[in-house]
Design goal:
The chain has about 240 residues and is α+β, with helices and mostly antiparallel strands. The protein has two domains: about 80 residues, Beta Barrel (OB fold (Dihydrolipoamide Acetyltransferase, E2P)), CATH 2.40.50; about 160 residues, Up-down Bundle (de novo design (two linked rop proteins)), CATH 1.20.1440. Helix content is about 35%, strand content about 25%. The strands form two sheets. The chain has a five-stranded antiparallel sheet. A three-stranded antiparallel sheet has the order 7-6-8.
Length: about 240
Amino acid sequence: MRPEREETLGALILAVRPQGEADCRVEAVSAERGRLSAWARGLRRPRAKLGGVLQPFTLVALTIHHGKSRVIIGAETLDGFRALKEDYVRLTAAALLAELLLAVVPADEPAEEVLGLSVAALSAMARDAEPLLPLLAVLRDLLQLLGWGVDAETCAVCGERLTGDCYLKLEEGTVSHGRCRRQGMALDAAALATLAGPETGPSLVGLEALAQLWQMHLERPLKSLPAVRAAFRHLLAAD
């Protein structure tokens, strides 16, 4: 179906990329159209009226004109997640989420559930005392939504409930007791709880397990992962 010439939709801004002298390319995810890319003409000029609105990690009501290319003609902030943007650790966590969304959300396909999970995660990252917890939750939940989730409750070998030392076999996406098969990535109790959900506490091993699963499915390294590792090691050391 051919889109209307103008359309307003709720969208989460993920990236704003400079183009030419004054324009930008805005990358976002919306419920109605999934991942979308649109021009923001003159956004880098000093008095650009949308300059303070079209920022990464901002939920906006976006008005787009559909022509030979998509052009943003209006935007209104719905949630700016200000506390998130004022804290390096929280912002680093959000950057990892944005990288994943840009990689897996299809263009021009509905993505209501993905948008809902993402907005809830950013809201929690902005307000929670421990931003690692909502990051772990959204990394796991998006894997489940894409069909890449892991059964972290039942041993893949013996079929019994997982307890004690366990191992994640990335290639199979399975977890087993150490007594059944000591192959793959070792998981402690906190990491196992992270994969099973809900989280019982922050777990860097859980973060590493989820990140390795994502990298395996994407078949490439996550560019933002080293910064996330460093940010949360510092945070947990301070605690």
